[in-house]
Write a structure and sequence with these properties.
14 helices, elongated, eight-stranded mixed sheet, binds cytidine-5'-monophosphate, five-stranded parallel sheet, about 400 residues, alpha/beta
Length: about 400
């Protein structure tokens, strides 16, 4: 099997440059998240950054000395060269307009700017944070564009209220988004150039204006799989059922409600894609009669409801003219897991199916079986993140056939 490292970023060295902006306090949270993932963080602060947060904060969080002087007393090892040369990645968060201008023009008048100039060919991520007018300023836009042309990745600032009381684009990306960007930059892009479409979550079949037929699926496995695929370099479209959590913004998300709208969204997105993964728990039935108003309680002891079969989304995708390169389904079963899953593999004409137990719905861990026409293999129990990476490994193996 293609072995994918569950945490290729662990033990890697990241230099975290902290610029002088109010968002410096969020750099502390970013450092904490990176450390938590097993990343070795070395902080470099500008003079202005130390007006907002003390070096001690970062020393306590990272367990490493914090650097801020180009010519530290008795420093014969040339910190500006050695620290950045040993690094796997340089992240500057917050990155001020001033720092961007200096990076772009090769100005090296303090430790951080000198490091940028002296770095080897490593990924550089800049997380701008500034007043919205400063961000929009033609000079800042020129600088960020040129830095991108030079291969630097800009982790886009967000819209919102800034510390100066103005509203607009300029808030630093969240610490979680910065962690994701670092993880992605330290993960080999083996899915680069591929388009994956994943559906996730429950469907909700309307009965009347307020009542729906749905199930306990959270969509967590589909979200994790989408995020893993993005980290591995794929372009990902997620067709999300109701209530599915927010996913990384670089995932194209299409919301859907019932099986009919999910089917239409899947057909449109999956035509000709490389891989389609059907993690969604699509309702097998919909109401024969749907009411636009709220039904009133009736006098009788019971109500008869007629249900109609829903279309089978994955079977439709697996047999359409513009069939994706690979189509993968799931089978949540309560007994005879592999037997039932194997018959669905045939019936739905998919390339592979993952059999698992219904008890995994809505919980954080999973285990199961990977089944193709001529192969069966246990997927060991683990958290859903590891489980989803294991499934991606199997899909890649299919692609090698
Ligand atoms: O037949 P069953 O519902 O057990 O099959 C599960 C697999 O089929 C899952 O991959 C699910 O996403 C997919 N499915 C579907 N459309 C349906 C029912 C299930 O795509 N209407």
């Amino acid at each position: 099997m293609v072995q994918l490292d569950t945490a290729p970023w662990a033990e890697r060295r990241v230099v975290l440059g902290v610029g002088g902006g109010i968002a410096a306090y969020r750099a502390a949270e970013t450092a904490r998240l990176l450390i938590h993932q097993g990343i070795n963080v070395h902080v470099v602060m500008t003079a202005a950054a130390q007006q907002f947060v003390t070096p001690l904060t970062f020393e306590a969080l990272t367990g490493n000395p914090v650097h801020h002087q180009t010519f530290a007393g008795g420093d014969r090892t040339m910190t500006h060269i050695s620290l950045v040369r040993q690094a796997d990645l340089l992240l500057v968060a917050p990155c001020t307009a001033n720092l961007m201008a200096k990076f772009n023009h090769g100005i090296a008048d303090d430790l951080l700017t000198t490091m940028y100039a002296a770095k080897a060919d490593i990924p550089v991520l800049l997380a701008p944070a500034m007043n919205p007018a400063m961000w929009q300023h033609a000079a800042t836009q020129r600088n960020q564009q040129q830095l991108q042309n030079d291969g630097v990745q800009i982790v886009a600032p967000q819209e919102g209220s800034t510390a100066c009381g103005e509203h607009g684009v300029g808030r630093m990306a969240s610490p979680e988004a910065l962690l994701f960007a670092v993880q992605a930059a330290l993960t080999p892009s083996i899915l680069h150039g591929q388009h994956w479409v994943i559906n996730a979550g429950p469907t909700a079949e309307p009965w009347d204006a307020v009542r729906v037929l749905t199930n306990r699926a959270s969509g967590q496995l589909g979200c994790l799989m989408a995020e893993q695929a993005v980290r591995l370099g794929a372009q990902v479209t997620l067709i999300a059922g109701p209530g599915v959590r927010a996913c990384h913004p670089s995932i194209q998300r299409i919301n859907s409600d019932d099986a009919a709208s999910m089917l239409q969204a899947c057909i449109a997105a999956a035509a000709g894609c490389d891989v389609f993964v059907a993690t969604a728990a699509v309702s097998d039935y919909r109401f024969a009669e749907q009411h636009s108003h709220k039904l009133k309680r009736q006098g009788a002891d019971s109500v008869d409801i007629r249900l109609l079969n829903n279309p089978d989304i994955v079977a439709h995708i697996a047999t359409m003219a513009a069939r994706p390169g690979r189509v993968i389904a799931f089978a949540a079963e309560s007994e005879a897991h592999c037997t039932h899953a194997r018959s669905k593999l045939e019936k739905k004409a998919v390339d592979a199916i993952i059999a698992n137990d219904v008890s995994h719905m809505g919980v954080d861990s999973a285990s199961g079986w990977w089944l193709t026409r001529n192969h069966a293999e246990v997927i060991p129990a683990g958290d859903k993140s590891t489980f989803s990476l294991c499934i991606i490994s199997h899909i890649l193996e299919l692609n090698c056939d």
